[in-house]
Amino acid sequence: MINKEKTDEEIISQLDNIIENGISIDYDTKPKYTVKELSKKLGLSSHTIRFYDKEHLFPFVKRDICNDERLFSEADWAFGKLIKCLRQIGLFIHDCRLFILDTLIGDDTVKERLLILINLQKSLRKQIQELQEAERDLQYKIRFYSYLDEEIESEKEKGIFTDKQRGLLSKLKKFVSKQKSLDY
Q1: What is the pLDDT of residues 57-99, one digit of tens each?
Q2: How is 98-157 classified by DSSP, letter by letter?
Q3: Which residue has the higher pLDDT, 160 or 93?
């Protein structure tokens, strides 16, 4: 991102400045949703919505003067969807704030945002691959313990089961050799 070295305070100040001076991009910033309504629309908790607002991730949030209630716009909802996605794949709040700032800056930052998203996609694909490997390991362990459980139940039915004499090691060897023949 263009603004990588900026502090949170600098980013927030720049965000506020862009919002106060108006932006050239056409956003629907009319206050429309309460915290509860936005929470339901985004599938996030009200606490998370308030936290993201305190972190300046909703650029167009307004306050109802009468009851000091937060009101969010369609643009805030769109940014909320983006934030939810970015956070789910591990982007830090600081980096989400930078992404939003770059979005508000406009077309000059498209290339930086594209590169960020491509790198996030690579990271996500790696996480998916690692999770798939973990799932395969888990499936193997489930098959082993299912096999072991069946053997123990069989011994119990025959009345020959004793915890010390069940031969866990021999059952393990038998299971592993059986699995190797299935895997090849």
Answers
A1: 998 888 888 888 999 999 999 999 999 999 998 889 999 999 9
A2: HHHHHHHH-GGGHHHHHHHHHHHHHHHHHHHHHHHHHHHHHHHHHHHHHHHHHHHHHHHH
A3: 93
